[in-house]
Design a protein that fits this description.
Elements: E1 3-8, H1 14-27, E2 32-37, H2 49-68, E3 73-76, H3 84-90, E4 95-97, H4 98-109, E5 113-117, H5 120-133, E6 139-144, H6 158-174, E7 178-181, H7 190-197, E8 201-203, H8 204-217
């Protein structure tokens, strides 16, 4: 059955949206169309709680537009999973964040995993998500390449080299059976690193796409009973009118 899956890059980087979209299409089932989108306003990279708060509004706007275009499910392609629960309130189909998806997948193929992310501050945010999702005891260690998100798109290859180095370090030192890549901009690195390291290296974009495909195929959307019911109807003013 044909599916239309929306993959939302919550930052405004068109280059990163392209990277994420290509990764999503590389694993999409025959008949699945990937709609890769990003907000036109917001932050060009998401590297902290402040950035996530701004990006969450763009995520909601994109989900609303995706629904209008017929999207049956949505992926939030930032490792902080910004706006995830709010997005589920707004959506009827499944909404999956890439951190959540990657952590789930890692526990299916290994008893322990490590995370490799961008900046040291995002290590702290990833640790919060581990606690929130119940995976804290499955994660052996978190590593940062200590470069900003947009370094993954600057064409120098430095960020990619550092991701590889941290993945090798994680395998050598952590005793982990799998590695989770902690940024949507790393989406195109997982397959090559899996082959080189000989252990599963999991990208959340591709993991989330397969999860959403499965949920849609099973006829499972976001529950509208309880706290994920549609938002209470009320007037929105100013720039928020676009969400009405």
């Amino acid at each position: 059955m044909p599916q239309l899956i929306q993959v939302i890059n919550p930052n405004t980087s068109l280059a990163m949206t392209h990277t994420i979209g290509e990764a999503a299409r590389s694993v999409a089932a025959p008949g699945t169309t990937i709609l890769a989108t990003c907000p036109t306003q917001g932050v060009e990279s998401i590297e902290g709680h402040y950035d996530e708060a701004i990006a969450a509004i763009g995520v909601l706007e994109q989900i609303k537009r995706g629904k209008e275009q017929g999207a049956q499910g949505h992926v939030i392609a930032c490792f902080g999973d910004p706006g995830l629960l709010a997005g589920r309130e707004l959506a009827s189909g499944p909404v999956v964040g890439i951190a959540e998806a990657a952590m789930h997948m890692a526990t299916l193929v290994a008893t322990r995993f490590s995370i490799v992310t961008t900046l040291p501050r995002t290590v702290i945010i990833a640790r919060h998500l581990l606690q929130q999702y119940g995976f804290e005891h499955h994660c052996a260690a978190l590593h940062a390449i200590d470069l900003p998100v947009l370094a993954l798109e600057d064409g120098t290859g430095l960020a990619q080299m550092k991701v590889r180095e941290r993945c090798l370090q994680a395998k050598r030192e952590d005793g982990s059976g799998a590695i989770v890549l902690g940024c949507g901009g790393m989406a195109n690195l997982a397959r090559e690193l899996t082959q080189e390291l000989g252990i599963p290296v999991i990208d959340g974009v591709t993991a989330a796409v397969k999860m959403v495909e499965s949920l849609v195929a099973l006829g499972l959307g976001t529950s509208k009973h309880g706290d994920l019911a549609y938002p209470n109807k009320k007037p929105l003013s100013g720039g928020f009118e676009m969400l009405s």
